[in-house]
Each structure stands twice: as structure tokens, then as C-alpha cells.
Design a protein that fits this description.
The structure is a single chain. Helices cover 27% and strands 17% of the residues. The chain has 13 helices and 16 strands. Strands 7-6-5-4-8-1-9-10-2-11 form a 10-stranded mixed sheet, sandwiched between helices. Strands 13-14-15-16 form a 4-stranded antiparallel sheet, with helices on one face. The protein has a two-stranded parallel sheet with strand order 3-12. α7 runs parallel beside α9 and α8 crosses α9.
Length: 466
């Protein structure tokens, strides 16, 4: 059903609206590439549980992460803003500002119980779990500093603000594998919520398949024959603190199958507790696949037909799988090429909850796409920027995509604006900028207008000199 957008109508309609609101479970993988699911073309290993979301729901072909690295991508998801307007525009020792309004806060106000399990989505590189409560999450179990998510056997987790220590974990080995811990916590949470009147909003923020990619042998054994032999000798890792693995392809594929098993267990728990039909279950990734921990996306074709990887603003860095299942609403086996992005989730959730989204966002609800009812509003453009790696930005408008690198290196060394037609050239191999100078100028002007300067993440090549 479509809910009234008027806040007054929602207030008068609240008792009925509460009964109709679905649970929302948002599963966010870390560094999972566009080609890492068999429903998106993966052939070396299978992901049947995650693929079932496409079979029983909707597969998005043109969905984009909030950015090409963790913190700004998750900021976009939480606040409904693209990266030219975010507080967090890169990784670093920062967190959301007290005034930043998140989807968790909005849903909490609408009567949802809110929870985050796994890697924090709002605190950047901080060790203060209190920030999660301030930004709308009533329950939290996981880690808040991104480095703690780089090891599969953390020495501690937070349960709300309490530090739960695991003395038998030693980062590289132990008896409490983080993915398994988060799966068990999720199953327990869903069990607790069964039978309660209020709906819940749960973010399961997985720290994998981000490196380290070590995984228990039982998962590796299931895929070893399918991915071997391994002709690619892994290069020395630029971040040597990751756990070393002898079989990077087998480890990565095994880790993906363990993620799939976890998703399958969550689906079954929702079904067993009678909550599956009225739950919107989403699975996606915060950016493209990585070349870390001894792994390279080329080993298992993790980014499929796309160019680039994590930290790139080519499609391989930002286009991600996005699957949505809601048995009571979404037509099984449906598929959409509607261009959408992380910043669209907040207004979508608000429309589902029958509340008004904030005015200062760039997101557009894709609920009409999910329901097949009403007219789906389209974006004029989608925009990304990253001040790291010499400074880079990109824009998609219709089928056209402009990419600009090396922005911070001065006018004489600044990279040219590249232009691609994604409908004809998904792999971004044919730069058409020289053939369409007027379109390049138009898209460049759109990029200039899309952003505002940030004092936290300065962009020398774009921000005016003081």
C-alpha cells in the first residue's frame, strides 16, 4: 500500500499505520563486488540464499553505493544525502555531527525499535558507542572503530556501551569468528522481536568480505575444488596487518559462502517466527570489491563486467548488488533498471513508515519501484566525490557517466573529464569526451553545483582558496 505523506494525516492515521508497517532488515556487506553473487553472474561459487531474495523479490541492476569507501557510503545510507553534501566524505577519525538526522532516528520516532549489529554505520573511526544511541539505535552489538573490523577474531565487542571481552580471541585466530557472532546475535534479536506489536528496523552491518579474508576450514573445503588451481600469485599487501592467507581465492570464496549461509539462517528465522511476509529484507554492499589481504577481484571476477574496484569512481567502485524481498508486497522474480543509490533508502523507509523525510536530502523514495504502484520519480543525476587518491568525482545523468581524477594536483596536472555511455559501454572502456565537448561541459557544471565545501574533508582542487 502507499502511505500518506502528510505528517498530520499520519498522526491521525497512526494506529492503523503502525499495524501495517513492515519490519525492515537491511543487510550491508563490506567490499562485496557487483559480480560476487551468482544472481549477478558469479560462476566460481554459489550464493543460493542471497539469490533467493531475487527469486522471491526484486533485483536492482543499476543500484549504487553512497561512495567508494566505507564511512561516506554509510553516511549516505544513514542520512539520505549524496557525497557532495555529507559530513563524512572519506575515512578518518571523524563521526557524524549531533545534528545529523539518521534513518534510525526517524524510524524510532515512527514507532520502530531500532538495532544495529556488526560494524558501526555512523561513528567513523571512533571508540564511542554512545554515538549510536544518539543517532537513533536503541540496541547495538558490534565494533565502532573500523580497524576492529579488519580482524575476524576481535578481542571484544560492544553490547550497547558495555565492552564484552573475548579472551580466547587473538585477532588472527580464536573460537568466536565475528561473522558467526553477528549471525547469532541477529537470530536472537529476531526471536526477541517475534510477537511484539511494534515493528523493528535492524541493520546487520557485516565486516566481510573486507579483508582480512581468513575463514574457517569448513567453509574453504566446500569451494576449494571449484576455485583451484590458483594461477595468480598474490602480491604483497599494502596493508600488512591483515591476516595472511595461503589460498586467497579459496578463502574469499569460502567467506562468501559463509556469508550466504548466514543470510539463509536469517531468512529461515524470519519464516519460523512468522515475520517473513511482513518484512522488507534488503541485501547490498557498501562499495565494490577490494584488492587487499592477498585478494584481487580478478581472481574470481568479483566485479563482473565493471571497470575499477574499491576507491575507484568507475562503476566497479560504486555499482553494487541490491536485492529486496517483501513477500506481502514485492512481485517475486521482478527486476528493475531504475538508477538508485544509498541516499534513496532514507526517503523510502520514511514513506514505508508514513512519515515525512527531512527536506535537505538528495534521496528519492523507490517505494513505487518495489510495489509496482504509482509513478517512480527519477533522479536528474547521481553524484559522488572522494578527496583521497588525488581527488576524484563522478556523475551519472541518464545513460551518461562523467569521471574526473587527479583534481587536487593543480591545473597543469589535473586529469581530464572522461565521458562514457553506460548503456553501450558498461565497462567504461571507450572515452567519448572528445566527441561530446558540450555534454562534458554540462556534466562538469552539474558536478560543480552538486556539492558544498567541507571543512572536515577539504577538497583543494574544488574548494575556493581562503
Amino acid at each position: 500500500m502507499r502511505y500518506p505523506k502528510s505528517l498530520l494525516l499520519y498522526t491521525l492515521f497512526s494506529a492503523f499505520a503502525l499495524a501495517e508497517k513492515p519490519n525492515i532488515v537491511f543487510i550491508l556487506a563490506d567490499d562485496l563486488g557487483y559480480g560476487d553473487l551468482s544472481s549477478y553472474g558469479q560462476e566460481f561459487f554459489q550464493t543460493p540464499a542471497i539469490d533467493s531474495l531475487a527469486e522471491n523479490g526484486m533485483l536492482f541492476t543499476d543500484h549504487y553505493a553512497g561512495n567508494t569507501v566505507c564511512a561516506p557510503s554509510r553516511d549516505a545510507l544513514m542520512t539520505g544525502r549524496h557525497s557532495g553534501r555529507l559530513t563524512l566524505r572519506g575515512n578518518g577519525p571523524h563521526q557524524l555531527l549531533p545534528a545529523d538526522l539518521t534513518v534510525a532516528t526517524l524510524l524510532q520516532r515512527a514507532g520502530y525499535h531500532t538495532a544495529l549489529i556488526g560494524k558501526s554505520c555512523v561513528t567513523g573511526n571512533t571508540q564511542t558507542p554512545e554515538t549510536l544511541a544518539h543517532h537513533g539505535f536503541e540496541y547495538f552489538f558490534g565494533t565502532t572503530h573500523h580497524v576492529d573490523g579488519h580482524h575476524r577474531y576481535p578481542k571484544f565487542f560492544y553490547k550497547n556501551t558495555e565492552k564484552i571481552k573475548y579472551p580466547d580471541n587473538h585477532l588472527h585466530h580464536g573460537s568466536h569468528y565475528d561473522l558467526d557472532v553477528y549471525k547469532d546475535q541477529t537470530l536472537a534479536y529476531i526471536e526477541r522481536k517475534a510477537g511484539e506489536e511494534a515493528p523493528f528496523f535492524l541493520v546487520l552491518s557485516l565486516p566481510v568480505p573486507h579483508a582480512a579474508i581468513n575463514v574457517p576450514e569448513d567453509s574453504m573445503a566446500r569451494v576449494r575444488d571449484a576455485v583451484q588451481p590458483d594461477p595468480i600469485v598474490p602480491a604483497p599487501d599494502p596493508l600488512p596487518h591483515y591476516t595472511h592467507v595461503e589460498e586467497p581465492k579459496t578463502s574469499y570464496a569460502g567467506l562468501m559462502t559463509r556469508i550466504d549461509d548466514s543470510v539463509g539462517a536469517i531468512i529461515e528465522k524470519l519464516r519460523a517466527t512468522g515475520q517473513l511476509d511482513n518484512t522488507l529484507l534488503i541485501f547490498t554492499s557498501d562499495n565494490g570489491s577490494h584488492a587487499e589481504g592477498g585478494y584481487n577481484p580478478k581472481m574470481l571476477n568479483s566485479n563482473g563486467p565493471l571497470r575499477g574496484l574499491k576507491r575507484d569512481l568507475y562503476e566497479g567502485g560504486i555499482r553494487v548488488p541490491f536485492l529486496a524481498q517483501w513477500p506481502a508486497v514485492i512481485e517475486p522474480g521482478s527486476r528493475t533498471d531504475h538508477p538508485s543509490a544509498f541516499w534513496d533508502f532514507l526517503p523510502t523507509a520514511c514513506e514505508i513508515a508514513a512519515i515525512c523525510p527531512p527536506e535537505n536530502i538528495q534521496g528519492i523514495s523507490f517505494l513505487p519501484t518495489l510495489t509496482g504502484e504509482g509513478e517512480q520519480e527519477a533522479h536528474t543525476y547521481l553524484y559522488w566525490e572522494l578527496s583521497e587518491r588525488g581527488g576524484r568525482r563522478a556523475i551519472r545523468m541518464g545513460d551518461w557517466k562523467a569521471v574526473e581524477y587527479d583534481i587536487n594536483r593543480g591545473d597543469d596536472r589535473r586529469g581530464p573529464v572522461e565521458l562514457y555511455n553506460l548503456k553501450k559501454d558498461l565497462g567504461e572502456s571507450n572515452d567519448l569526451a572528445a566527441e561530446h565537448p558540450e555534454l562534458v561541459a554540462k556534466l562538469t557544471a552539474k558536478m560543480d553545483a552538486a556539492r558544498v565545501p567541507s571543512s572536515i574533508f577539504p577538497f583543494p582542487g574544488l574548494d575556493p582558496a581562503e
